[in-house]
Amino acid sequence: MDLYQHDKLNLGRPAIRLFRLEKGRRSQIFCEIFQAYLDDRGCGVPYEALSLTWGSPELTKDIRVNGKRLPVTDNLHQALLHLRQQDRDRILWIDAVCIDQGNLRERGYQVQQMGDIYRKADQWLEEEATKYACSDWHPEDVRWANIWRDMDGQVALGFHSDLEDRQRQGLETLLGHEWFTRAWILQEVASANAARVCCGTKSVSTRYFGLLPGWLTVVPSPHCRAVVDMMPGISRQHSWWAGRRNLFTLLRQFGHSKATEPRDIIYALCGISTDARGPNVLTPDYAMPTRELMRKFTKLLFRCDMTGVPGWRLVSIRDLAMRVEQLNQIAILVHIENKDKTLCMSLINRETKLSMLKAAGAYARLRGSSMLSEVLRRHRIVLRRKDTAEEIFRDSG
């Protein structure tokens, strides 16, 4: 049987591909991939957006797409089996198959539309792996009734004490899943208007899922907690997400996210930040060399060209995340030297406690600056020592 090949996507309009999962019970999965549009002239097809970890590319199973063969990862194959309905087709958007991953131009174009794709989806589905204890429970198992009152997501408020330990352990395992560490889920979670977390054939609304760690006294990792706080529901309205979402804050929260392609982290952060829009937008371009992308990103982050700072050298996105506060302080001095008070104050007002202003090699020339004195006095910054950018990166490898 011929191998499925993606048809050319219309890049002149906000085009996407949608995935029709045909109804049925057979072990073989039959699907159709077709083109649709996100603009007002589009076909208006309602769809759900699926988010999952792709899994190992070495472990694949074939599905039938438009009468041809398409290998997909075992993770995706299992998800499709769980999501397939017996009585009607289901329309999905799945990045692994709806984007021609080998076409860099199309890939960048689709990444640019990611926010709209998830915002316009009827529902966002986060499919977890099925290795958890709950995946082995029979649908009639009484334990389901103690977690959810029904499949509409009504959470049972009272838990039987003899089940609490198992529930807590199951939630800890769930929150420890690799999915919560990935870079690209950030834009997916942030853009969703309604969402469900799926485990096997069961699911729960994120409106309640975000409250479960508190109810069961489970403490997720900082990265996982930040992701849960972004999910549609009460958590999103009252967490850090309701406050500042600038690149500086996001880099500190998610700079260590996992990604097969490191550039994904940069594009994901830019896609959900409040200060990387309009004239400051960094358009996804996977043909751009990583070094050039890092230069543009740091310029966007610090509002200046850091390559002129003594000892500066371009680093990886993870190195940048580790030292973002130190570099922010260096950038403050750059703006002081350039007498740009507006940019200087914008960097100072970020979510950081400056007890020490770390200087670049330019500090000696700035010692007598009245602007520097004003900044130090207003923000009670104590300058105790000076560090050059070279010293900051001494141990960066």
From TrEMBL:
It holds the Pfam family HET. This is Het-domain-containing protein. It comes from Colletotrichum incanum. InterPro entries: HET, HetReg/Transcr_Mod.
